Protein 1
Amino acid sequence: MAGTKVVIVDDSPFSIAFIKGILVRNGLEVVGEAGTLEEVKQVIQETKPQLVTMDMTLPGTDGLECTRAIHEIDRNIKVIVISSMMDDEIVKEAKENKVSAYVQKPIDEEELMTAVNRVMSSEELFRFLSSEYIKIFKEALLDGTNKLTKSLIQYKDEHVCSQEFQSEGLAVIVGIIGKFSGRMLIDVKMETAYKLTASIMKREASGIDEVLAVLGEFTNIVSGNACSIINRMNKAYGLRVAPPTIMHGESIHITAPGYTTTNILADSDFGEILLNIGFQRGDDQWM
C-alpha cells in the first residue's frame, strides 16, 4: 500500500490539506488535487492514480458524476468517498456507482486508513488469509471444545473439498462476511451431538431442540472467536458471522459453496467432529 498514488477531489482547501496530511503520514503519494469535473478528468489523465478520495458536494457536479468520469478513463481506479453527508440512499447510490468505500467527515485517521487498506491491499490480504485461516479455525475449535467440555480433540485428517458431501446427521453452517466472504460448518453424528450437549450442559439433553440450540451456539462461538483473531491481525478484514443455519436428519447433502473449502476431521471424547471452512475473493463488503 505504501507508495500508492492518490488524487484528492474536494473543493475545500482545508479538507485537501487535512486528507493529504493523513495520507502522506501513512506512506501514500498524493499526486494531484481537483475541485471540479473538468479538473478531475485532467488530473486523472495526467497523473494516472491508483486511488481517488472523493467529496460528494462539488461546484457544478457531484462525487458520483466525477466517479463515473474517472472510471470511463480507467475502471481500475479505486474511489473512496469522503463526505459530511452519509445516509442509506447516498451509500446505496455510491455502491451502484462502483465506489469502493465511504468515510464520513469529520475524518478519523484510523477509519480512513482502514478503508484505504481494505481497498488497496486486497490481494495481499487474501494471500495472508489463505495461509492462516485453517490453522486459526482449527485452534478455535480445539480451544472452544476444551473450554466448554474440559476435553481435547485430536486432528487426524485434512483435505481439500470442492464437491457436495453427505452429512453424518447434524450440520451447523455459519456464513462469514467482511472483506472476504466464506463459510464455516461443523458436522457430527446425532449421537455425538447428544454427548457433546450433555458435556457442555453438565446433564443429559432435554431433547432435540436443546441439542440443536447448543450445537448452534457452539458453532457460533468457534466461528466468532476465529474471526475475531483474524480481525485483530488486521482490522481491514472486518469479518462478521451470520446466525447459524442448522440441518439434521438422514440423507442431508452439504452443497459446495462455489469455492474450494477444506474438510478437517477431528477425534473427540464424544465422536468425530468435521470442520469445513473456506473463503473466496469477491466484492468488498463495507464496514
Note: The radius of gyration is 24 Å.
Protein 2
Amino acid sequence: MDPVTAPAPSLQVSGLAYAYPDGHQALFGVDLTVARGERVALLGPNGAGKTTLVLHLNGILAGGEGTVSVAGLPVGKAHLAEVRRRVGIVFQDPDDQLFMPTVREDVAFGPAAAGLRGAELEARVAGALEQVGMAGYADRPPHHLSFGQRRRVAVATVLAMEPEILVLDEPSSNLDPASRRELADILRSLDVTVLMVTHDLPYALELCPRSVVLSGGVIAADGRTQDLLCDEELMSAHRLELPFGFDPRSVTVPSL
C-alpha cells in the first residue's frame, strides 16, 4: 500500500512520560504503535505504569511529556469527545460500568448521549448485543445476570460506540472456565483493535499474537507473545509468572 494513503495506526504513543502530583514518576518515555486490527497484550508487574498508560489513551490523564494519537487524532482538549468515543475501556468489574435498570438501557446510554435516536439507536444496541451473544437479554436487569454475562454486556456498552480501540482491564478475572472461553471467542470475532491489560498470561497467549511488557515505567520488551513467555530471564526480571505446569511452547498460536 502507498504509504501516503495508508491508514493511521489505531494507537501511536511517542515519548510519553508522566509524573503524578506527588512527584511519583510513573512513565519514562514510552513509545508504542498498535496497527488497526491488532490484538496486543499489555503485561507487567503491579506498579509498572500500565494503568497510567491506559488513562492517557482517552485523556483522563494529561499534562505529561510526549504525544498520544488515536487513529491519527491527537489526544487533547480539541478532540476529547471523539477520542473518548474511539477508545472504549472495559473495566475489570462490570458493576462499575452497568448502572441502568435494563441491559438495553445500559448499552443505549453512550450512543444516546452522543445524539443517536430512534431506529438507528435500536439497531446500534441490537448489533452490539448480538456481537457478544446477549441479544436475548435486552430487557433483563443487569444485576440478575451472572458475572460472565455482565462482563459481556459491559463489552457491548463499549461496542455500541463503534470504537477504534477496545481496551480491556483484566478481562478474564473472576470468570469460570466456560465464561472465559466464551469471552475469548467473542474477542477473536471482533473487527476492532484490542489492547488487553492482563496478568493472565495463558489468556494473553491465546488471544494476543503480540505482547508488550511494561515495567518500571518503560517498555522492557515488545514482540511475539509466545517468544516473550518462553524467555525465562525476561519473565523473572519483571515478575511475570506462568501457572504451574503451563508450557507456552506447547500452545499453537496465530502469527503476528
Note: The first helix runs from residue 50 to 57.
